[in-house]
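pinned: reference chain
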Amino acid sequence: MLDKIFKLKANNAKISKEILGGIISFFSIFYVLFLNPEIIANNEVSKEGLYTATVLCAIVSTLIMTIVANKPLVMAPAMGLNSVLAINVCQNLGFTFSESLALSLLSAILFLILTVTKLRLKILNVIPPYLVKAIGIGIALFITMVGLKNSTLLVPSDSTIITLGSFDNPVTLTALISLILIIILTILHVKGSIIITLISTLIISILLKLAFNEPINYTGIFSIPEAPYISGFITGFTSFNVENIPNIIVAIFALTFLALFSSLGSIILIKEDLNLDDDKKLNRVMLADSLGFFTSSFLGTSPSCILAETATGVKEGARTGLANIITILLLILALFLSPLLNLIGVEVTASILIMIGISSLGDLKLIDFSNIKEAIPAFFAIFLMPLSYSIINGIGFSFITLTIISLITYNKEKKFKENIHPLLIILSISFIIYYILLLIK
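pinned: its structure tokens
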């Protein structure tokens, strides 16, 4: 029955790998459930209501991905997009939270149009192969930086920007022990190394907090979910001011632009592992992604897209939507077990996120760094993502530098598209406009 529904044999999937992949994806993205409300909560909506909205959004949008594309890709409100909604749209442009939800819905409509017209697919297909590899590596290193930052293995420094965290901190020490453990298990080819690391790290985390006399944030096991702000987007549409149309356009552009390239980056990261080798498969993933975008506005939270962290489950062997069903079941439990999940610190999954970056470095050999024309765009894609803590910046600067280099070294004997595809020029100009708008607003 499972094979009939999820096409397990056709996708070379094993039930055990699907289950493990679904569990690992959940634990890799669960920090989003708590962090998203912290970022976007304001006087219009409570953190508790946003927690419910975030979990429900992840459940519904991931289910859409399962039904439409049958791929193990978890969707949820994305880090970066929530900051844009809270800071750029609400604070800088002056929109209320309700209005931001209405703007998010308009952005979702535009995002769907870009998908149905297959423009998103065209963008992916015109990116040079070496740059696709570089973007994949950059995103993997970005995920590594998420793990290093969340676990305090890396902390801010006034003199060196970043530095190692203090090992008299139980959180940092837990992450270090977890990293050593997963490296040992990986080198020894121990089956289930990731799930063993997860369970072991959770136990170590609690024991170290007790040893350091740190408080255990235990407030219970069960909680009744608070209702999400599902009528917010309706209120937002009724309160728009016609005189604010320029800011409305800016907000929609920013949300759509970031969603477009956040999703594109995540797809690039898992494209080969999931054998998304033809346009039909890719377009189904993109269609599911764009439909999932709508759920966030309806449920009252920031825009959702495919999370890059879902690559952890894919790397463990998840290949079909069956892994998503496991993740969804855990998300349903998370609705009622938020106090218990709060015990699980981000340091528990840090080592798994770090290993994603390590495993990606083998693709460096596929990029010709001796060719400066390839090296410069690839450099920005690989290093700017983790260092600026932004997938968008890495893609943006790689496109802009690629365009500049292609125009400078223009070969008149070649056709225009052989020098650089016009779509890449348009995207580069769009990125420049985006950065100018950030400066203005």
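why pinned: The two ends are 54 Å apart (CA to CA). Residues 15-40 form the longest helix (26 residues).
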